[in-house]
Amino acid sequence: MSFVAIDLGASSGRVVSGTLDQGSMRLKEISRFPIEAVDIPNDGSTSLRWNLLSPWARIKEALRNHEGITSIGIDTWAVDYALLDEKGNVLNFPFSYRDSRTEGIPELFEKACSRQRLFQLNGLQRQNFNTIFQLLSERDGAFANSKPQALLMLPDLFAYWLTGERSIEVSNASTTGIMNPYSRDWDPTILGLMEELGVPVTHLLPRLVEPGTLVGHVRQGLGIPRVPVFAVASHDTASAVAAVPTTSDSFGFISCGTWSLVGTEIASPITSDEARLANFTNELGINNTVRFLKNIMGLWVFNQFRKELEESSEPTSYDVLEDEALAATPLRTVININDQSLFAPGPMRDRISQLAVEAKQPVPRTRGEFYRCILESLALSYASALHEIESLTGNRLGEVHIVGGGTKNKLLCQFTANATQRVINAGPSECTALGNILVQAQAIGAIPPGRNALRDFAKASSETRTYHPQGNTSGWEIAYRFFERINKDANQA
Questions:
Q1: 64-116 pLDDT per residue, tens
Q2: Which of 171, 366, 414, 468 would be a feasible disulfide site paired with 238, CB 3.0-4.6 Å?
Q3: Same domain, 166 and 294
Q4: pTM
Q5: CA nearest 430: which of 7, 97, 74?
Q6: 211 and 179 belong to one structural domain
Q7: What CATH number is attached to the domain comprising 155?
């Protein structure tokens, strides 16, 4: 059996196969390709949109060239969507969540519904890029001019292109802001508010499906075998959490990639005002679970910093940057790594310098100091989020796992152990693809049902590394208290 995961991130995509091998799943990368949002001219300005045609071509090529496919599952990043016309054609290149068109839109929605009430309905962290606000930003655009007839989230769009069948999987639907995490269904109150605000979407929404549901079979004419396509946990973080290699009932996770999602699994949503004010979110997971988590900037800032170095022909190898960071003074500069100024693409050194000035911290001078500032600030942000999780849930986290691409950054993993004063279990790096494939295997009956069986396979299939706290404990404690203060000041601004 060869299960195939189409795993698309906001900067790269991959097609990965999984083969059962004596109680574990052996993964093999079939294809890897870039994914990029591009500026497209639009009425005298530009909009940031996804060119999905190139990834679609690479996906088809990989599937055509891979023999013996048993089934296929698709996961992508959250919140972004495509609008379709009456013939099922995509109306335009889908917007990127980093497009600036949603600035001020949450405030427009809040004229009809308070922040507190909306959080009680959808349990979602208030962020400009939430699908609900993206849709509202198109009120005078697509909804006024193009009259869309269907809406699909991006993993469901690729599933539609493969099978001709439309559905939306619940883990990704729960990031839209128009779904109720208690009922695991679209929220009628929110849909009514959207209609009142001039964005009727109820008729655009297809059926909701849970992870493990058969969506359809590959349609004819693609040159790909007519194999089943399953809805997996189609939000990439949900797939990653499904494959966290733990046997603990109370664990923390840090899914680290372009974004870092810091959270835990719980049985029922937490929609208290304390959770809302702490910027936590309730997103759905496998087996009727809820992922209670916080969105943190992740490796985005470092990736943009590295791109800035490339453009100025400076050294960018990880080994060189790590050596320079290790040579820099520890905890010299701590910033609010989640500041909105770091959200947009572009050079980061000037923005980091400005944040250092605002925080009355020394401005980084060298590449190593900038890199160390980014990683230490990120590790402190993780520590803060884990502490909040324990406070809001009332549960002590038994284990903490870092999964995803960030596990390859040994310096970040060590700083996280130092900042949290916890043992950190790092790995696997391809946790999202593994979770995607394990859900398929369970759906087809190749592995036993239930969450425990899934985690047993995840543990048997994963290579992990353990990091213990090191270095100056008091220095990290002082830095943590400072980070908490500047973070609190930013939230009150």
A1: 999 999 999 999 999 999 999 999 999 999 999 999 999 999 999 999 999 99
A2: 171
A3: no
A4: 0.93
A5: 7
A6: yes
A7: 3.30.420.40
